[in-house]
Design a protein that fits this description.
Organism: Paenibacillus lactis
Order of helices and strands: EEHH
Structural class: alpha+beta
Distance between the termini: 33 Å
Pfam families: MciZ (PF13072)
Strand content: 5-15%
Protein name: Z-ring formation inhibitor MciZ
Largest sheet: 2 strands, antiparallel
Strand order of the largest sheet: 1-2
Length: 54
């Protein structure tokens, strides 16, 4: 399975069972109330925060 993350989107390419497993892992990590947009925003913020540290 491959996944690609843009600034405002996530694209997953794979079989349905692989995508279900990935979504289940995210649900375990981020909680059942989290939306995909919450995950994208958090990852984008973490990416920018880590790039500021030298």
């Amino acid at each position: 399975m491959k996944s690609y993350q843009g600034e405002h989107s996530i694209h997953m390419v794979g079989r349905a069972w692989q995508i279900r497993i990935m979504l289940k892992q995210w649900q375990n990590q981020w909680g059942p109330e989290a939306t995909i947009m919450d995950i994208i925003t958090a990852k984008r913020l973490n990416k920018h925060a880590s790039s500021r540290h030298y």
